[in-house]
Amino acid sequence: MALTTVALIGFAFALDLLVGEPRTAAHPVAWFGTLVGWLDREWTDSPTGQRLVGVFVAVLAPLVPAGAAAGAVFAASEVHAVTGAVVAGTVLFLTMSLRSLLELTEEVVVATENDLETARERIRGLVGRDASTLSPAELRSGAIESAAENLSDGLVATLIPFALLAPLSLPAAAAAAAWVKGVNTLDSMLGYPSKPIGTASARLDDLVMWLPARITAASIAVAAGDPRALRRASEWARVPASPNSGWPMATLACVLSVRLRKPDAYDVNPSEELPTLEDGERTVTLVALAAAVAVIVALVFATATTILAAELETTAVSGVRL
């Protein structure tokens, strides 16, 4: 099953690089977003009541994409094992996005040289901040911050659980990837202080993203050939409000030797200068290399799962014989 996992991860990446992210209206994440939008309403007049409703939303809503993914893989596997594997790989593809992240980051960075209006318009796909008054360097900072954070949210977070579970069960692996994507989507849509209904979703996302964020930070450091950057990054990783996004962000700031600043929010590695055009271009290369490192980490996890499962099976068989 380890070889199957390797093949499926390769299949998912090939689809991402060749096809790219499907149009928004056709993407299952958009369908889930429609459900979340329907849930995002005033169910009670009390903030406490809204938070209580939010607990049920956080627990139950991500089960919808998880159940759909598992059901699709299981049904396809009933037709043929290869069909089930293809569907599982497709689910992984739909829960990750690398090509669009790299392309959009590069578009923003290049546009900061002589087309600020385009840079300000395109960066809306990466960050939620008001870009109308940002300088070219601040626009590049926003793009770099988002590249680091979205590498974690949009790739590593779904890749790792898929790789861990695929050697054991493809429906479970697909369900795990879809569930994590559902949690991320809930947080991105509801996880704001102004939305009591999203409090539980934000807390759940913090928990789910703890490990992926740190794996992403380590992958960035390895990709840059600067593993000590993690130690330097630890000084700034907790500056952003999120307990997780600061790790890949600060690590990328340290390996690039740049300052990353969100006005009125945080200032990472402030002793350095804001990123230049060359720093932004290097970011695209580093994020792509870090994605490759993360894939290697995922395959190590898949191999470990396969070995452990084989050992447990051997032990069980031996016990029956005794």
TrEMBL record:
It holds the Pfam family CobD_Cbib. InterPro entries: Cobalamin_biosynth_CobD/CbiB (IPR004485). Pathway: Cofactor biosynthesis; adenosylcobalamin biosynthesis. It is a multi-pass membrane protein. The chain crosses the membrane at residues 50-74, 81-102, 286-310. The keyword Methyltransferase does not apply. Its main location: membrane. GO terms for cellular component: plasma membrane. It is found in: Cell membrane. GO terms for biological process: cobalamin biosynthetic process. Keywords: Cell membrane, Cobalamin biosynthesis, Membrane, Transmembrane, Transmembrane helix. It comes from the Archaea. GO terms for molecular function: ABC-type vitamin B12 transporter activity; threonine-phosphate decarboxylase activity. Belongs to the CobD/CbiB family. Converts cobyric acid to cobinamide by the addition of aminopropanol on the F carboxylic group. This is Probable cobalamin biosynthesis protein CobD. It comes from Natronobacterium texcoconense.
